[in-house]
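Write out this protein's structure.
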Amino acid sequence: MRGHRLLAAAISPALLPPEWKEQMHAFRTHNCSDLNAQDVGQSVRLSGWIHRKRDHGGVLFVDLRDHYGITQIVADSDSPALELFESLRVESVVTIDGEVKARDAASVNPNLPTGEIEVFARACTVQSSADELPMPVAGEQDYPEDIRLKYRYLDLRREQVHANMMLRSKVIASLRNRMNDQGFNEIQTPILTASSPEGARDYLVPSRVHPGKFYALPQAPQMFKQLLMVAGFDKYFQIAPCFRDEDARADRSPGEFYQLDFEMSFATQDDVFAAIEPVLHGVFEEFGGDRTVTPAPFPRIPYAEAMLKYGSDKPDLRNPLIITDVTSHFEKSGFGLFEKIVGGGGVVRVIPAPGTAEKSRKFFDDMNNWARGEGFAGLGYVTRKGGEFGGPIAKNHGPENMAKIYDELGLGPDDGLFFAAGKAGEAARLAGAARTRVAEELDLIEQGCFKFCWIVDFPMYEYDEELKKIDFSHNPFSMPQGEMEALETMDPLEIKAWQYDIVCNGVELSSGAIRNHRPDIMYKAFEIAGYSKADVDENFTGMITAFKYGAPPHGGSAPGVDRIVMLLADEPNIREVVVFPMNQKAEDLMMNAPSDVSARQLRELHLRIVEPQKG
């Protein structure tokens, strides 16, 4: 009961001298990062959370924390606040009245803006007392994710997480200012819209007034931003929320994410690049600290080249290793496995492993086991030490033939080599993954930099082996390079699209395209993929109809805000830069969503729950 009486009474500011109360704000005269040596002798009022307490035998030191920083509060036997402080748990919210004093030279903390001073507590008012915490706030120790997400409001009090959210806020403000400076107009597009047959799963919203019908949350503002161009707005952008019912990944939260969505009329691919490159370069330079940023114009890498050299359409250019095709060397070879693969239309790709002469055989065997663990048949290799080749591939292919490959690749006498063989797509995927793994194992990834590139010239179509038909490979609404002539005269699998991705450090920030704004070209493009004119009219009514009333050439992109902040914060998981994220099962543990709804709500929406069949 003693503690309850103290909390009820607190230490009343009414006990303070009249001159202390004059012109005092109800909660604070300063924030917890304001005070310094120039304020010594001042009477101040601070409010915040009790971050830490340290009892030094009759003298209690309290770190008081607010949004801005920390100030050390002191209470000794002469302070009326001492007994109250002793009774309070950390994270209780208090208001302190006191006098600014200089710290002893030995106790100055150079890491704090307020490290030269402390505040002697003359009075303390408890605004809110804290129960025992389910997780600590002070310190940056790891804690189970389910606890962090359930008590996210506590997690957000932690220094690094709080800093990530402030970084996000500043990045968004910077993006917005930079787009405004380029003459883009911020316009909000609808959240309740129609379901689209393309892309990922929609989040559906049942209509109360139209029984049996549903809205969808937008996967992106794609059609609306194109319609804005048709409407004559020329340059549009927004920090757009997007919703996709897909599984969580390290670089995408389940449910929702945000992107810098923009579109511009009468624009070529070069115009789009010229508009967004200074925005991205500027933001990464502004918030990247001492890390270097690729200067504009960013390198442009054709899709086919990216898949060959990097085994990925989102290459990490910090990695110096380059994949090479050596298929021709194994058309007639003593190594029967590779000769058989090549004879069957497969390819052989190699990934250099520089300076591995001193590596044991275990290093190479571990790489092979890793590849098998990733679902591949295996990763062949050749060792070389002092010019001497080793391993089964070298033995069967012969030292002279291996020397030819090494000379062609410019490899040295102590460099190893890994082999990925199979069908082109599979070999590229294995080679790309191995390129990353080898560079990580050999510590070759350049640090302290952001390396941007564009991936361009995506194929318009691909062959779907499962459905045995030609289908769109990327974005069906992109303008084919060569337009109608290409669609009418070229092999569809040879047609390139005006599509592009922007990549930074191996992370795809966005896809974009110059759009197909002509109905005749759109009908033809969909016809090649097996869709009728009626299919297009039914599934994309709003856009195809609008294009029939005069549409300008237009294009754009939509860099992901979450991914930009994740890179700048140097966080491996996107949930560290999202204020209230879901877990990997798309559950909000803090708000208990998704949740059951009442029978009344279901009746209003004309819905009935159908439980999935067991087993």
